[in-house]
Amino acid sequence: MNCLLCRPYEEAVMQGGNKEHPGLGANGPSLFKATGNNSDRRRSKSAAGSGFTLLEVMIALAIMSGVILTVISSFNYHLGVVNRDREETIAVILARAKLDDPNFMAIDGGKGTFAPDWPDIAWKTVIKPTEFPGVNRLTFTVSWDTERKMVDLVQFLAK
Fold first, then answer.
1. Which residue has the higher pLDDT, 31 or 126?
2. Given CA atoms 127, 122, 115, 112 in this order, what sign does their dihedral have?
3. Structural domain contains residue 104
4. What is the largest CA-CA distance in the chain?
């Protein structure tokens, strides 16, 4: 026979084993029959089995692109969080320094900036009485980015 499966079949027959041809089923040939040179067919089969198909490569690229997009967007989001935290930390430190300054007189409706070091960051104060006698509430607001972002610090003062 001229079938790819013939070699194991012929060896089994020579050794007195199973004489049923592995490529023939009850309804005739169940596998393709080889025609032509068997060495070409073996070479092409081994070469085809050694690489990836186009579909496998496309699926791998789709998965990798999804992972890369997720990592990049996560990285970008966290850079924004770090920048916001940095700005808020600077604002809180400047406010605490201003409140701890002995020359700073808490005046209701006082306004200013932290110039010359931080001219883009402004501050204002609001003093309101509380329900407790002899205690006022000082709200020190620090704003930046043209007052789109702000932080409030609250301190209670004796009258």
1. 126
2. negative
3. yes
4. 113
Q: Is the dihedral of CA 5, 6, 8, 9 positive or negative?
A: positive
Residues 35 and 96 in one domain: no
Q: What is the DSSP letter of 51?
A: S
Alpha carbons within 13 angstroms on the beta-carbon side of residue 60 total 6
- Per-residue pLDDT tens over the stretch 7-34: 665 666 667 655 555 555 555 555 555 5
Cβ atoms within 10 Å of 144's Cβ, excluding its own? 21
At 91, which helix (H) or strand (E)? helix 54-100
Residue with tokens 């050694």: 50
- Asked whether residue 109 is domain-assigned, the answer is yes
Cα–Cα distance between 110 and 99 in angstroms, integer?
12
